[in-house]
Write the structure tokens for this entry.
Amino acid sequence: MAKEKATTRNPWSFIPTLYFAEGTPYILINAVSVILYKKMGIDNATIAAWTSLLYLPWVIKMFWGPIIDTNSTKRNWIIYTQLAMTLCLASVAFSLQFSLFFYLSLGAFFIGAFVSATHDIAADGFYLLALDKDNQAGFVGIRSTFYRLSMIFGQGFLVWLAGYILSRTVDPSNEENIVSSWTISFGLAAAIYIVLFIYHKFMLPYPAIDAPAPKTKNAFADVFSSYFKQEKIGIILAFIFLYRFGEAFLIKIASPFFLDKPEVGGLGLTLEQVGIVYGTIGIGCLLAGGIVGGLVIKKYGLKKCLWPMAIIIQLPMMVYTAMTFIRPSGYFASPFVAFEQFSYGFGFTAYMVFLMYLANKSQYKTAHYAISTGLMAAGMMLPGFVAGILQQVLGYQMFFITTVLLGIPGIITLFFIPLEEDEKK
């Protein structure tokens, strides 16, 4: 007799690893790639423009959200995209051996971005199907925690590992040594991802409601029309695009700012120091901010928390501005990064809970959530195209002052945001 498939499991057995698997490729593609290319000698404008393009799959994933909703199960989509992602990470490691590494690795990152965006749709949809509403609320902080832990693994440990290996070579500035250090780091990422694939193949439950949505002639149109017919959709879109507007400019320039030499306005940190300060201490505080933010919203409700969280998420731009004046060196930058990352993690929680609030009001939960997060990615991608050019024209100090001003429009949208009930879920 065939063993009956488990329709439910304790969320602790799969939510932590699922969101670690979701966050790992995202941070490698969108953040670690910036550090990689900076160490490989690519200029800030080129890095910001091309790595911003890597956001594109997360922007347009809304267009294949209905395909995932109506074909196969979310569980199957998760399993096979994790296998594909393993191959993409291995390809990045291999591509660094060639003189055309920039274009080859960028291509592997770009394919990986499409795979990762598809995985995100399936994983977020699976979250809404495999957990009841109480557990959805209770595990917001948990899933955020393990998503952030994947960032520590990627932007912290893997960057530190590349720096550690490089610092132990006879000539750390030698191109072959730089290539070898990053090849090992991305090779390790691929190895760990194949382990996640095998684990989830056996451990993810088979929710009874995880089935393809009915296919209709107008399914695709219905998904989008129902989304864009929401009450006050103009304000919703403005909120999604502007809530993190200043951060969207800042994020592509943060790592180059840490790595650039003091004579050009940077802090002159080593790769190992960036891995510890920004990728470990910083992401750890980002994680803590997300946990605290989730607990606060669960206790007081989104309606009461949205305003203070929206103001707090503007603090990181001010901290970077302060660092251009104070100029902390080495590990002395840690308190600044810790504070700004905690503030960002805390304030960002309200943003994600609001997107879930919108999705839960719809019959197309997975597709609507994908549309919202796609628009969120667009809000991060578009400023990135010009962030590097703007920084090179203004210099680091004036650039960060400008990001403070760019955070103001997001706060203005709060006067009009449609949040009619005190939603704690």
Observations:
- The chain has a mean pLDDT of 88.
- The chain has one domain: 11-207+222-413.
